[in-house]
Design goal:
The complex is a heterodimer of chains A (about 575) and B (about 90).
Chain A lengths: L7 E6 L4 E6 L9 H12 L13 E5 L12 E7 L6 E7 L1 H8 L2 E7 L8 E5 L4 E5 L8 H11 L4 E6 L1 H4 L7 E4 L5 E5 L4 H7 L2 E7 L11 H17 L8 H5 L4 H7 L21 H11 L2 E4 L10 E3 L14 H7 L8 H14 L3 H13 L8 H12 L3 H7 L2 H7 L7 E2 L2 E2 L9 H9 L12 H6 L13 H17 L5 H7 L1 H15 L5 H21 L11 H5 L13 H6 L5
Chain B lengths: L1 E6 L1 H7 L3 E5 L3 H11 L21 E4 L2 E2 L15 E5 L6
Classes of the chains: A alpha+beta (about 575), B alpha+beta (about 90).
Chain lengths: ~575, ~90
């Protein structure tokens, strides 16, 4: 060791309102992002803890390479026991906040204990010192306004992590919001309700001032620089990630059309796999409208990004920016609710960003509420009124903020598209079996990023796999391992489009990780580490009461045929169990 | 057979069109006609001018199925069929 100042762990004791700085234990030195949050949660949170109770913890950790300036390295992980799934959760986000805490030399922030009931605090990570400041005056305030006020109050250059109104309700669908490069609340550790974990520890905001000195250590600069160049070249070469490629030109919503044409874009609470109107909310249509009305495209979520898949969507006339409308958000708040209008979707997304709700879960919640008769499919106006219920903290608002399963049960719905309590993303597993295997078996619940089988099954990246073939255990396993590592590295998952197809890109990625750590791991060793993370997460879940019966599809997906292919989810239980059986 | 070809993303931008009608018996013939009608798509659809093998960068979907899982370029067409042609796309 020696050279730069060593990293530290900040332990924030919300009961005694104390912040302690700890040395990084040796066994954590090579961990970062998901590998670190899942490790700390496994070691420090009793698996039977109540997610909102005193024994749960919130852990935030930047990735291994976050803060180095390597391309697309602006990510962090938030972890804890999830109020939504009841299992372990890692929720990944791309935000300048990640770089700021990494460059302050912060390896992880662990938030534990609970203050006096009803009190909220702001954790200030200043240039020199850290302190907890009372934050009651922001209770009940939307995050767009709150973040503006925080920027005015703290004159320094700051990045923010925040828990919104939904989190104040201790709602299971409360995410953790972070600043985007414009300082707005549009970046999220969305899935799994970690915002409620944050708020139930009495923490409303973390405000991090940009440090004067960059404390991010790179142990082997030569290897790191070699790797960084290879990775950058791969990203600039690959058709999906390059400048003027699909992501740069149309954003993630470019997927709407191909998934719709494949018969797998869930419509009206997973009752159909395609609809001609889906094209009205596609990436192509959105890019056209941004060109006409104003807004920004391309755009990046964090400083080191060279793909720039993001955008700033606005109202007509270029006014009232919302932020990015991701594919998942557009689908969940759009076609899955029978809504085919980007302006309505934009306002629903704005409400989610403002309240601190995960958009995938919120969209599924509205769709399930539609199925339950609370409002009609396609009624965007009423959907927006339902968001007001959350703002006003009414009993209905509390139901809705608790997610799709809770809402579905309240309204007597038996077609609830959740696994381990978390609702499905924008790909119907009946028409794309491999992503279904990931949904079923990931320790995270129904999660598409956990093992993105869509890449080979639909997009022709990393090989070609028939989406209708139901032997997908090996594919899902290998993708889940690789993803666990990327989530730990601090890289955006979209680098995988390039690294799966361009060997030098993969080599480069591993070299940057080895460069930061001063290690010499091979790709096989790195994949094994990915499996170790998954094993650790599954072990936590088992102790929390999960069994293989939780690695299953909801009944309706095994019975009800999905048009237009008229298929059910027919991957056998044996095949699902094969994903982790040998481990 | 009279069929529709839908173009998406950068392909639609290149061609200046997102829907085209052609007459063809199989997918290969349909794409050859597409390419000759829109020279800006040359060398985007097939691997080379001489070898009419589908470019690895192109995805063609018929009836919701990638033609790789049907009969590839030899997939037969009927009146009213629709082909959806995509350049490399990705997201999350």
């Amino acid at each position: 060791m020696g050279g730069k100042i060593a990293e530290k762990i900040l332990r924030v004791d919300m009961e005694n309102l104390e912040i302690k700085t700890e040395e990084v234990p040796k066994e954590y030195e090579e961990l970062g992002g998901r590998g670190l949050t899942s490790k700390i949660v496994s070691e420090e949170v009793p698996p039977n803890a109540h997610p909102l109770g005193p024994n749960n913890k919130l852990v935030i950790a930047p990735g291994i390479v976050t803060g180095t300036g390597s391309p697309n390295s602006g990510r962090l992980s938030a972890g804890g026991k999830s109020p939504l799934t009841g299992g372990i959760k890692e929720s990944n986000a791309g935000t300048p906040f990640a770089r700021t805490i990494a460059r302050k030399g912060i390896k992880a922030i662990i938030v534990e204990g609970k203050p006096e009931k009803g009190k909220y605090y702001l954790l200030k990570l200043g240039k020199g010192e850290e302190e907890l400041i009372e934050a009651d005056r922001w209770v009940g305030k939307g995050l767009y306004d709150a973040y503006e006020e925080l920027h005015e109050e703290f004159k320094e250059d700051i990045e923010i992590a925040g828990a919104g109104i939904a989190a104040e309700l201790n709602a299971s669908n409360a995410g953790i919001s972070y600043t985007d490069p414009e300082g707005r609340s549009t970046r999220y550790s969305g899935r799994g309700g970690l915002g409620a974990v944050m708020a139930s520890r009495g923490l409303k905001f973390i405000v991090a001032e940009t440090p004067d000195e960059n404390k991010k250590e790179i142990k082997d600069k030569e290897t790191f620089d070699k790797g960084r160049k290879k990775l950058a070249n791969a990203l600039m070469e690959h058709d999906i990630t390059k400048k003027d490629g699909a992501l740069n030109s149309y954003g993630t919503s470019v997927l709407v059309n191909i998934i719709n044409e494949s018969g797998a874009l869930p419509q009206r609470n997973f009752s159909d796999g395609s609809d001609d109107r889906s094209a009205e909310v596609s990436g192509e249509r959105k890019a056209e409208l941004i060109e006409e009305r104003g807004g920004v495209k391309p755009h990046k979520c964090s400083p080191s990004c060279i793909i720039q898949c993001s955008e700033i969507w606005t109202k007509e006339g270029g006014e009232d920016p919302v932020g990015v409308l991701e594919y998942e958000s557009v689908w969940a708040l759009g076609p899955n609710c029978g809504i085919y209008d980007l302006d309505t979707i934009g306002e629903l997304n704005r409400a989610c960003n403002d309240l601190g709700l995960d958009t995938i879960e919120a969209g599924n919640t509205i769709a399930v509420a539609m199925e339950g008769g609370l409002l009609d499919f396609g009624d965007g106006e009423k959907a927006l009124e339902l968001m007001d219920e959350v703002y006003e903290k009414t009993p209905l608002g509390r139901i809705l903020a608790n997610g799709a399963e809770f809402t579905g049960e309240a309204f007597g719905v038996n077609r609830i598209p959740t696994i381990k309590g978390q609702s499905m993303p924008a790909y119907d597993p009946r028409s794309i079996k491999g992503i279904g295997v990931t949904y079923a078996t990931s320790p995270m619940g129904a999660d598409h990023t956990a093992g993105y089988a869509i890449a080979p099954e639909i997009l022709g990246v990393g090989g070609e796999e028939d989406p209708m073939d139901n032997k997908k255990a090996d594919l899902s396993r290998s993708l889940q391992q690789a993803t666990a590592m990327i989530d730990s590295a601090g890289y955006c998952l979209f680098i995988a489009f390039a690294t799966m197809d361009i060997d030098e890109g993969m080599e480069g990625m591993i070299e940057t990780v080895n460069g930061v750590l001063g290690t010499d791991y091979s790709i096989d060793e790195v994949m094994e580490m990915g499996m170790d993370i998954l094993k650790m997460e599954r072990e936590f879940n088992e102790k929390a009461g999960f069994s293989k019966e939780d690695d299953r599809m909801p009944e309706f997906m095994e019975k009800e045929e999905l048009p237009p292919h008229n298929v059910v989810f027919d991957v056998s239980d044996e095949e699902l169990d094969r994903v982790f059986e040998k481990e | 057979m009279s069929i529709k070809i839908k173009l998406f993303a950068n392909l639609a931008e290149r061609a200046g069109e997102d829907e085209v009608e052609v007459s063809a018996e199989d997918v290969k013939e349909a794409l050859v006609k597409l390419e000759s009608r829109y020279p800006s798509l040359e060398e985007k659809i097939f691997k080379s001018r001489e070898k009419k093998e589908l470019s690895e960068s192109i995805t063609v979907i018929k009836d919701g199925r990638n033609i790789s899982y049907l009969q590839g370029l030899e997939t037969q067409l009927e009146d009213g069929d629709k082909l959806s042609v995509f350049p490399p796309v990705g997201g999350g």
